[in-house]
Amino acid sequence: MKNKKVLVTGGAGFIGAHLSAHLLDCGYKVLCLDNLFTGSLSNISNLFDNPNFEFVEHDITKPFYHDSIYEIYNLACPASPIHYQKNPIKTVKTCTLGVINILGLAKKNNAKILQASTSEIYGDPLIHPQSENYYGNVNTLGPRSCYDEGKRCSETLFMDYFREHKLKIKIARIFNTYGPMMSPNDGRVISNFINQALNDEDITINGDGKQTRCFQFIDDLIPAITKIMRSNDNFIGPVNIGNPNEITMNYLAKKIIKLTNSNSKIVYRPLPQDDPKRRKPDITLANNILDWRPLVNLDDGLIRTINHFKKFNEKN
Fold first, then answer.
1. Which residues contact 199 (CB under 8 A, 6 or more apart)?
2. Catalytic-role residue among 147, 161, 178, 268
3. Structural domain boundaries, residue 267
4. What is the pTM of this model?
């Protein structure tokens, strides 16, 4: 295992940085690829002194060549609406041309490859909770489509490479994840609420606040996706990875106000187009096949994330 090289695309991002550190701890050599569009060198600064870590600034929409790669985790793609909508064509290219490039690299190296898919492939779901056999309810023409449809196409490409080239693939559908190393300006609801609460600003909720989400802490996600990679080659997924504890945005806002001792007030704004009303993973498959379930409760995860944001603000 010590001599096995693992490629992590998007390795300087929130999830990628945590995964890279974990893989190094497990004894792998890690090749981290990132174009730094949303990733940050500060996320991986503590890894540069490790002789088993290598960083390459690269955009996967351009071909990348490397030998002796054992496994690939494809995490490359902006994941928050403000980032993936900033350059929607680029987002689609990352999910299509980029994925083709990385699948080709996996084929050349005979490497096992995992696609970090998303709960967004379910769109604004008509089935609740969402299981892996649900095809979703996605608007192909809306402002979120570059990401939703892009990720759906990524899954299609993975399956076609599996069928046509017998590639060893894995597909993980990741639900909302939070924790330290989240970018403060990523536009995601937890980072928005924490920033606003720490500054005693109004906490802005889109819609009436009754829409629901489920949030998993980063420390639960990382072992889950490595379990998927380690699973039998016959199990390719897709498999939902998320915390099924469903809460409203009103509840989340009040919880963060309480945990930060904030004087913030809650204000409401119009709900963006195609914003899902409910979202909850059915994780039966992950329970049964991977023997995985989330362990970190919301309060503990939020406190650790709030402390990270406090330290970040102190430095800046």
1. none
2. 147
3. 189-213+245-278+296-315
4. 0.94
